[in-house]
Amino acid sequence: MKEGGKTAEVLSAQPATMPLRIALIVADGGTGAFQLGMATFMQKLLGRAEFSLTSVVVQPQKVVDYSTDAGVLSAGLDRLGRRGRERGAQLMEAIQDATTEVRREARRSVIVVMRIGGEAMTAISGNDVREQLRKSAAILYVISTAGAQRAAPSQIRGTDNVSVQQGQLRDSELAESASNLALVLGDGSKDSGGHHDEGVSTTLVTSLERVAD
Questions:
Q1: 1 domain residue, yes or no
Q2: What is the mean pLDDT of the chain?
Q3: Domain of residue 85, CATH code
Q4: Are residues 93 and 132 in contact, defined by beta-carbon separation less than 8 angstroms?
Q5: 68: in domain
Q6: Which of 25, 58, 142, 167 qualifies as a FRET site for 209, CA 20 to 30 Å off?
Q7: Which of 38, 28, 36, 110 is nearest to 61 (CA)?
Q8: In a domain, 39, yes or no
Q9: Spatial distance between the Cα atoms of 13 and 19, rounded to a whole number of angstroms
Q10: 61 to each of 36, 58, 80, how far by Cα in Å?
Q11: What's the total number of domains in the chain?
Q12: What whole-number distance in Å separates Cα of residue 73 and Cα of residue 24?
């Protein structure tokens, strides 16, 4: 292998034993779709990791700060069941926040994003968040439900020139925002060593089990 541009000999290799520091971000629109999957995920890694839980129905809300306490984590999960139904999650902001908090000495950093789509428009640059992800040294895993990548409906309405121009501008902004988010979820996860999976409600638990493994 090379380190700092210089060839170095590999003397040994073994499974990593350093504890994990995992930021779980759930943008489920308040549906509770990932609650069971998260419970299974944390149960598999309890004793090997500390977890934080962030709910993104609209604005990011820290439900549990980094903890290894099973009781605290269980109470946090209880708050991530059905809690209304709303669109417009500020997911890019939540990921950006996680990149600044997840890194810690003597820990392996991981960010797991769970989403159903319909995120709010954002002006945050996808390349900027990818760079922050790289600096955090965190691995990013993303699990999306089927249809989460669906484009937002067109904003073009009316027949007068002003209405049409406003709709076209809005469509352009929505497309750029979606492109920035896709850049982070797709290329960002791949570059970090993770991946982006898409599934249906019946496979979400299995998908999170695979990430835990």
A1: no
A2: 91
A3: 3.40.50.410
A4: no
A5: yes
A6: 58
A7: 28
A8: yes
A9: 17
A10: 19, 9, 11
A11: 1
A12: 11
Q: What is the CA radius of gyration of the chain?
A: 19
- Crossing angle between the packed helical segments 91-101 and 126-136, to the nearest 10 degrees: 30
Q: What does the pLDDT look like over 94-111, one tens digit per residue?
A: 999 999 999 999 999 999
Q: Would you state the torsion angle of the CA atoms of residues 178, 31, 77, 186, taken in this order, to the nearest 10 degrees?
A: -20
Distance between CA 173 and CA 167 in Å, rounded? Answer: 10
> CA–CA separation, 195 vs 35, rounded Å?
21
- Domain range for 86 is 18-212
As a whole number of angstroms, the distance between CA 210 and CA 213 comes to: 5
The pTM score is 0.87
What pLDDT score does 162 carry?
Answer: 53
Identify the residue whose tokens are 């995992």. 22
pLDDT at 2 (0 to 100)? 85
Given this model, what pLDDT does residue 84 score?
85
Tokens of 46: 């309890």
Output the pLDDT for position 213: 94
Handedness of CA 187, 192, 193, 199 (dihedral sign): negative
H/E element, 198:
strand 196-199
Q: pLDDT averaged over consecutive 10-residue blocks of the chain (213 residues)?
A: 88 91 97 97 97 97 98 97 91 97 96 95 95 96 85 58 64 86 96 94 94 96
DSSP one-letter code for 201: G
